[in-house]
Design brief:
By secondary structure, the protein is of the alpha/beta class. The chain contains twelve helices and eleven strands. The model has no long low-confidence stretch (mean pLDDT 91).
């Protein structure tokens, strides 16, 4: 009796959370746009050992449709030990918009990507900073379609990224990213932003310096989250996060289970710094999943059939809506496999993070 009450209470909580997120997603497609707004922009790309991906990224950046006199692209070679630096140098030698910065070792608390991004921003001149990763491909309208969501009261803009998927392993990762982007997008749109994601993020440079830059932000293995929270909590500026396919960036999934494990663990460790509201948002599906698993083990499938159906329906609607808006609805075919994967890692990740908080990323321990 106690179990039945609990699982139906959390089914209700999950449904309420869904309605809130769905409202946020709908609203995010109707955000006001500051048309014909062309400020100076600096794009920062930190690259560490990206010889297999960097050329595609550089090629897409070179095709951006934005006034050339107002755009600079700063590539930060983050102490790469492969051919990344040489590829960048060869590509940009006849392109004045591009600049290469070789990052120096940090003598502060900063490590990894945060240190590289900080040095990129130090060498930038734009009024606005756009961040993406070296394994990303940007659409030609990316800058225009992010910048137009800045207004006088907006200090930071988030955008979606989707992973290329040709099989089930890649497809579940792609849906996982969209699932998490949906939460980030909806929460920001409804006025309680949880995070921005650093492979598609725009920042008013004034806000960055108002919070003291990365030098004065507590180090986090998820530096994008740390910067977003600093700007939201310490300045008067707000965040926009449009669900807009024209600013959709494409990236690549993890190649194997070990890479995926390290990625999810890094996100989990970074999430330990999340605000209380964020913990509430993620604790509801965590407890709901636990209750479903306990129900399957101790009470049988039919005793929890209705909660499972409701959960599947809710997740499907959210993903179907966002994928259709992003013009990638074909990825919905991976939905059932994603749900099995989601059940597994949502339950296991907090346990893994609790037992060991060390993060290994880009051949470095953070």
């Amino acid at each position: 009796m106690i179990f039945e009450n609990l699982i139906y209470i959390f089914t209700l909580f999950y449904t309420i959370e869904f309605l809130i997120f769905f409202l946020g997603l709908i609203k995010s497609t109707k955000l006001s746009r500051n048309e014909n707004f062309y400020p100076s922009v600096s794009i920062i790309v930190a690259a560490r050992n990206e010889e297999n991906n960097i050329l595609s990224c550089l090629t897409s950046l070179s095709k951006l449709d934005y006034p050339k006199e107002k755009l600079e692209i700063i590539l930060v070679n983050d102490q790469s030990t492969d051919n990344t630096k040489n590829i960048i140098e060869d590509f940009i030698q006849d392109k004045k918009q591009f600049k290469l910065v070789n990052s120096r070792k940090s003598f502060t608390h900063l490590k990894g990507k945060a240190n590289a991004v900080m040095q990129g921003i130090e060498n930038s001149s734009g009024e606005f900073i756009l961040l993406t990763d070296a394994d990303c491909i940007v659409p030609k309208d990316w800058v225009k379609e992010i910048i137009i969501y800045f207004h006088d009261n907006i200090g930071i803009i988030g955008g979606y990224t989707i992973l290329k998927a040709k099989n089930i392993f890649e497809g579940i990762q792609s849906l996982d990213w969209i699932y998490l982007f949906n939460i980030a997008c909806s929460s920001a749109t409804l006025g309680f932003p949880l995070t921005g994601i650093g492979n598609n993020l725009a920042v008013r440079k004034k806000c960055y310096y108002d919070v003291g830059g990365y030098q004065n932000i507590k180090f986090s293995v998820t530096e994008d989250y740390a910067l977003t929270r600093a700007i939201i909590s310490k300045t008067k500026y707000k965040m926009n996060f449009p669900l807009n396919y024209k600013s959709l960036i494409t990236s690549f999934p993890c190649k194997n289970i070990l890479e995926l494990y390290r990625q999810k663990k890094r996100w989990g460790v970074g999430g330990l710094d999340m605000i209380p509201l964020g913990f509430l948002v993620f604790s509801i599906p965590y407890i709901f999943n636990l209750l479903i698993i306990f129900g399957l083990i101790f009470w049988g499938f039919y005793s929890i059939l209705l909660p499972i159906i409701i959960k599947l329906l809710i997740d499907f609607i959210l993903l179907f809506y966002s994928l259709s808006k992003l013009k990638h609805l074909k990825y919905i075919k991976y939905f059932i496999f994603f749900e099995i994967y989601l059940f597994t890692y949502v339950v296991l990740l907090p346990i893994i993070v609790f037992l060991n908080k060390k993060v290994f990323w880009k051949e470095r321990t953070l």
